Task: inverse folding
């Protein structure tokens, strides 16, 4: 029976925002040999100056890794951001008929995106139908890498992305906009708020 789950994320990096900004400041001041201007709080002013001037190459010296649980539609869009590293759950090598997957497929619950119960029912029927055919193919001896062809875009996947702060700014700017797909906009909006709470200044000008 199909399992339905919500999107989620986990920040894997142990973030110390102050230490990150101090690292950014040390790197940036190397350009001007102005290390003698470093004080206990100067990293905040320095970071604000970088953002105001859009001098974002300096913030590339810090990176953050995040695990995202969503559907494959979201990850198809996410991996288009090229200046990042990705590790993703593989439908080729993961056999969802095996016990560790509960002998079921898991999909991201899209119920909130439909306008009425009839549409939700139709969507869930499609998910159940995909699961039935996937499991049937596996039982018949079809390799998982071939049977995966019947899996829906809404099948749950996990992806770990590591990107520097500049690339995270780019991701948030594009994926939190009103034009973004509802799934990715939701995840990135919540993730942006977490980044704002943990890393001062760098993301303050971007709205979820």
Result:
């Amino acid at each position: 029976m199909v399992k339905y789950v919500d999107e989620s994320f986990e920040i894997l990096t142990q973030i110390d925002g102050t230490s990150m900004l101090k690292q950014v400041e040390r790197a940036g001041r190397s350009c001007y040999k102005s290390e003698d201007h470093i004080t206990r709080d100067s990293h905040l002013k320095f970071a604000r100056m970088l953002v105001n001037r859009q001098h974002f190459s300096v913030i590339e010296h810090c990176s953050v890794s995040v695990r995202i649980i969503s559907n494959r539609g979201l990850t198809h869009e996410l991996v288009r951001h090229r200046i990042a590293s990705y590790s993703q759950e593989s439908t080729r090598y993961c056999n969802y008929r095996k016990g560790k997957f509960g002998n079921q497929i898991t999909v991201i619950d899209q119920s909130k995106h439909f306008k009425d119960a009839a549409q939700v029912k139709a969507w869930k029927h499609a998910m159940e139908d995909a699961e039935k055919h996937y499991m049937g193919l596996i039982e018949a001896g079809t390799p998982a890498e071939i049977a995966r062809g019947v899996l829906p875009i809404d099948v749950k996947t996990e992806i770990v992305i590591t990107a520097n702060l500049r690339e995270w700014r780019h991701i948030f700017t594009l994926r939190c906009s009103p034009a973004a797909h509802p799934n990715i906009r939701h995840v990135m909006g919540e993730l942006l708020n977490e980044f704002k709470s943990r890393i001062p200044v760098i993301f303050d000008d971007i709205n979820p």
